[in-house]
């Protein structure tokens, strides 16, 4: 099973934006680890937005 290139680009952009990590560092992560970072970061962003309201 392959992972869509556009999905990888979204993950890289998301993590780079929030953590200021370089593309190589993000792509060096195992797929499951990268997804876990994306998921956890999303939850943190949602919590921060809810706290502002």
Description:
The protein has 53 residues and is an all-alpha fold. The chain has three helices and no strands. Helix 1 packs across helix 3. The radius of gyration is 12 Å and the shape is elongated. The mean pLDDT is 93.
The average pLDDT value, as a whole number, equals 93
Task: Indicate the low-confidence ranges by residue numbers.
Answer: none
Relative strand content: under 5%
Helix/sheet category: mainly alpha
Oligomer: single chain
Order of secondary-structure elements: HHH
- Helical residue percent band: over 70%
Between the first and last Cα atoms, what is the distance in angstroms?
Answer: 41 Å
In summary, what is this structure?
By secondary structure, the chain is mainly α. The chain is built from three helices and no strands. It has helices spanning 5-19, 23-27, 31-52.
Question: Which key phrases capture this entry?
Answer:
elongated, 53 residues
